Amino acid sequence: MSYVLYYSPGAASMPVHWMLLEMGVPFDARLVDIDAGQQRDPEYLRLNPAGRVPTLVVDGVARHESAALLMLLAERHPEAGLAPAPGSAARAGWLEWMVYLANTLLPAMRDWFYAASDGDPAGAEAVRTLARRRIEEACARLDAHCAAGHDYLAGDRLSTADLLALVLLRWTRNMPRPATDWPHLTGYIQRLRALPSFIEVSAREQLTEWRNDA
Ligand SMILES: N[C@@H](CCC(=O)N[C@@H](CS)C(=O)NCC(=O)O)C(=O)O
């Protein structure tokens, strides 16, 4: 099995980067500087026509979409235990969280950060207002899950849903109401940030913000 991850620090590629480190599988990492517009270089567009990160080249074939990549990796490496097995009690909850994070929270994040460039700048304020509401609703939902006594999103162990959730929550750090503002969510965030693989991915991506020691 061979993997080449095209990533940008702290971006939607981060949960995939984190998962590869958590599993301890070999991979190559290639930086795509999205601030410099490298996601639109013709060479990169051949790998990812949408011009976005992540791209994960799996055995020579370029694959996209962070949530799909996490689920694909979980399927290819069941021994890592980062997804509840099909038919297990925790499986349905894991599927729900993966889909919710990918089709509700992640698009709201995209709207928050890209409203003016993805759409008409004149309407950006209204888009961001709705995005903020959706993001805060998601934080409240995650907070309620933690308040109910759950240490993880699916079952009683770490899964891809936690990796995706944590990276999305990280993006709230400079928003009007950051995820750390929710009382139960903040404990969840601190627990996951203490994982050696999170510390490692933050170091490899040279992220200095949003660490337990920062
Ligand atoms: N749905 C995609 C979203 C990917 C995405 O929006 N990535 C952002 C970085 S977080 C990106 O590549 N932005 C550069 C751009 O849009 O020009 C996924 O989950 O992989």
Automatic annotation (TrEMBL):
Pfam families: GST_C, GST_N_2. Residues 87-214 form the GST C-terminal domain. The keyword Transferase applies. PROSITE patterns: GST_CTER, GST_NTER. It comes from the Bacteria. One of its GO terms (molecular function) is transferase activity. Keywords: Transferase. Residues 1-81 form the GST N-terminal domain. InterPro entries: Glutathione-S-Trfase_C-like, Glutathione-S-Trfase_C_sf, Glutathione_S-Trfase, Glutathione_S-Trfase_N, GST_C, Thioredoxin-like_sf. This is Glutathione S-transferase family protein. It comes from Paraburkholderia antibiotica. The lineage of its organism: Bacteria, Pseudomonadati, Pseudomonadota, Betaproteobacteria, Burkholderiales.
